[in-house]
Amino acid sequence: NAQFQQCCVHISRNIAHKVRVSDRQEICSDFKLVYQASSKEEANNQIRFMIDKWKKQYPRVVKLLMNPAILTFYNFPPSIRRTIYSTNLIEGFNKQLKKYTKRKEQFPNEESLERFLVSQFNNYNQKFLCRVHKGFKEIHDTLESMF
User: What is the pLDDT of residue 80?
Assistant: First the structure.
């Protein structure tokens, strides 16, 4: 029952690359109101507003906005939304893995790469075992009931 959340930071960057420089600030400000809305309904209203406003000039942007995975984070309690609308936590770890594997240059076989990756996963899990990310401690019971 995993729910997919499209990274709002990446969507914002994609939108910025699909519009004229003269419209970039305005359209990105409009999109910022989507992921800063206080409710899913308000966010949907902002998306509809953006679609109406920009559909003639930027149909490719409208296509991005129609992705339902943009608003998945609104299915969760407000205290963790800011954390989960972006994939920064995952990207940081992936970047670190990439850096470590490049440093190793070459693994003799697939099994050695797999052992190395598993050890990195274990180290990461140990590092964050006792840490609770901002907002998650308060809603632990709520998340338990959701899953």
Answer: 80
CA torsion angle for 66, 71, 75, 80 (degrees, to 10)? 170
Rg (CA), the chain: 19
| Domain ranges (residues) in the chain | 8-84, 88-146
Spatial CB neighbours of 115, under 8 Å, sequence gap ≥ 6: none
Give how far the C-alpha of residue 50 lies from the chain's centroid of Cα atoms, to the nearest Å.
Answer: 20
Cβ neighbours of 147 (radius 10 Å): 7
**pLDDT exceeds cutoff 80 at 123:** yes
In the three-class reduction of DSSP (H, G, I as helix; E, B as strand; rest coil), residue 131 is classed as coil
**Cα separations in angstroms, 81 against 25, 52, 139:** 24, 26, 12
Distance CA 2, CA 53 (A): 33
pTM over 0.85: no
Task: Tell me the two tokens of residue 135.
Answer: 């907002």
Longest CA–CA span in the chain (Å) reads: 56
Distances in Å between the alpha carbon of 143 and those of 2, 99, 136? Answer: 13, 33, 9
Task: Tokens for 6, please give them.
Answer: 């499209």
Give CA–CA dist 91/108, Å, rounded: 27
